[in-house]
């Protein structure tokens, strides 16, 4: 392919719970983006995110079982080349771009490096825009606490500020912090993208970060020490009281060490989507795209073991009317 014919690969990044999948769905809902193939990277052992992406059949490829910048980075070239092969063979619509949605714990640097430095990939693909969703309810604390979040922020061509509708307007100090952390990134809000979805993947207005052509610029930020994702299959329906009790038990047991909780649960014959960021847990009707998904929960914690989470799972099945546990009740 000539340089003008290569397919751009866009990277959609952001820390745990920052709203990446919501942004992706807004993009795909518009007809102008139906020529987009999506690669979703799932950290937990049981994949879910690809079920939540509203897309045409065959439009989503899944990389599961590990973080894209670590455990499955070697699988990425194969996945991208397979998409190109299937496109050329007519097995997929002739998409005009590929979007990689990373896990919340992925450092975009190694992904960028693979796309840029593989001669084979470079023949078919080019690096597109790097977008990072920044959660403005707790994004600054995440960046200060997690090297991955900092890498996602500083490597972005475009920052999308999310959850501004749930808080007061940005303070001057926050604006200064964002600009100082990545002064060359375009900054838009999730509301801007909702109004004009083309903003999400529009070519960046400014140059890339200085020094990003140097290998040193992609020095891999190590994962935060002790962070792990634990997945649990749920073979029995849960109760509404059980969901409230489990949420309370997680908060009381792990506090700030609880980073993310996500999954599908069945109750009273209905499939529900569970999404939690930190100790905030939300439950809603599962989208139609999740129909047939296996009930499960994936909990991402720091400095804790899988057995500690497993010990709390019985709370999911307590009878209706049961009160959530207290700290004394967990001891």
UniProtKB/TrEMBL annotation:
Gene Ontology MF term list: hydrolase activity; nucleotide binding
CobW C-terminal domain sequence ranges: 227-317
Keywords: Chaperone, Hydrolase, Nucleotide-binding
SMART domains listed in its UniProt record: CobW_C (SM00833)
Gene Ontology CC entries for this record: cytoplasm
Recorded superkingdom: Bacteria
Purpose: Zinc chaperone that directly transfers zinc cofactor to target proteins, thereby activating them. Zinc is transferred from the CXCC motif in the GTPase domain to the zinc binding site in target proteins in a process requiring GTP hydrolysis.
Membership in a protein family: Belongs to the SIMIBI class G3E GTPase family. ZNG1 subfamily.
UniProt protein name: CobW C-terminal domain-containing protein
Species this chain originates from: Novosphingobium guangzhouense
């Amino acid at each position: 392919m000539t340089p003008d014919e290569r397919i751009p690969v866009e990277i959609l990044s952001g820390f745990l719970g920052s709203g990446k999948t919501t942004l992706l769905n807004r993009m795909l809902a518009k007809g102008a983006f139906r020529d987009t193939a999506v690669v979703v990277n799932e950290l937990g052992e049981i994949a879910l995110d690809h079920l939540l992406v509203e897309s045409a059949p065959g439009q989503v490829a899944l990389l599961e079982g590990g973080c894209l910048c670590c455990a499955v980075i070697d699988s990425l070239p194969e996945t991208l080349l397979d998409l190109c092969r299937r496109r050329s063979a007519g097995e997929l619509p002739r998409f005009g771009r590929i979007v990689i949605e990373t896990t919340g714990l992925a450092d975009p640097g190694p992904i960028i490096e693979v796309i840029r430095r593989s001669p084979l990939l470079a023949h078919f693909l080019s690096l597109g825009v790097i977008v990072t969703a920044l959660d403005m309810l707790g994004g600054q604390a995440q960046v200060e606490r997690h090297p991955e979040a900092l890498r996602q922020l500083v490597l972005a061509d475009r920052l999308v500020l999310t959850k501004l509708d749930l808080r007061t307007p940005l303070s001057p100090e926050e604006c200064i912090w964002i600009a100082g952390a990545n002064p060359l990134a375009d900054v838009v809000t999730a509301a801007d993208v909702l109004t004009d979805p083309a903003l999400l993947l529009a070519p960046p207005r400014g140059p890339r970060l200085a020094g990003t052509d140097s290998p040193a610029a992609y020095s891999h930020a190590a994962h935060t020490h002790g962070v792990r994702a634990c997945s649990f299959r749920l073979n029995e329906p849960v109760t509404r009281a059980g969901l409230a009790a489990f949420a309370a038990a997680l908060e009381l047991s792990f506090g700030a060490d609880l980073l993310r909780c996500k999954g599908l649960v069945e109750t009273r014959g209905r499939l529900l989507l569970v999404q939690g960021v930190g100790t905030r847990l939300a439950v809603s009707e599962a989208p139609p795209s999740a129909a047939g998904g296996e009930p499960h929960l994936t909990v991402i914690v720091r400095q804790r073991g899988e057995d500690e989470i497993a010990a709390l799972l019985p709370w999911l099945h307590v009878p209706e009317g049961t009160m959530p546990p207290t700290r004394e009740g967990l001891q």
